[in-house]
Specification:
By secondary structure, the chain is α+β, with helices and mostly antiparallel strands. It has a single domain, classed as Aspartate Aminotransferase, domain 1 (Alpha-Beta Complex). It is built from three helices and five strands. Strands 1, 2, 3, 4 and 5 form a five-stranded antiparallel β-sheet that branches. Helix 1 packs parallel to helix 3.
Length: 122
């Protein structure tokens, strides 16, 4: 029984790797689009599905903006998306979706962050 369970887990994990790569590619592409669209997005960085979206108050000086994160956070929470911050100043959106996230769920989350940034920038 335990051998069958471990084989099932290994099969599932094998399917998740290509899926995670596709999610990562899409997420980075979408966040780069947000960087081009919103002056508040200073940088997009990360590895795989561990992505940081830095929010700034001035794109030239790249002054960090925890206020922008707080506004995005509140907007997203009201719409049932949990976003958490990282970085010493609390101005980076930590985007780490589960490996079983669907492409539709990923796009919904990025769309919501886009809406939040649009609302913040007014």
């Amino acid at each position: 029984m335990s051998t069958a369970a471990s084989i099932a887990v290994m099969d599932t994990m094998g399917d998740l790797l290509p899926h995670a790569r596709e999610l990562s590619k899409t997420a980075f592409s979408r966040f780069e689009e947000l960087k081009d669209k919103h002056v508040t997005v200073g940088d997009v960085r990360g590895l795989g599905l561990m992505i940081g979206v830095e929010l700034v108050s001035d794109p030239e000086t790249r002054e960090q903006s925890p206020e922008a994160f707080q506004a995005v956070h509140e907007y997203c929470i009201e719409r049932e998306l949990i976003v958490i911050d990282c970085g010493p100043d609390g101005n980076v959106i930590r985007f780490i979706p589960p490996l079983v996230t669907t492409m539709d769920e990923l796009n919904w989350a990025v769309d919501l962050i886009d809406e939040a940034l649009t609302a913040y920038e007014g």
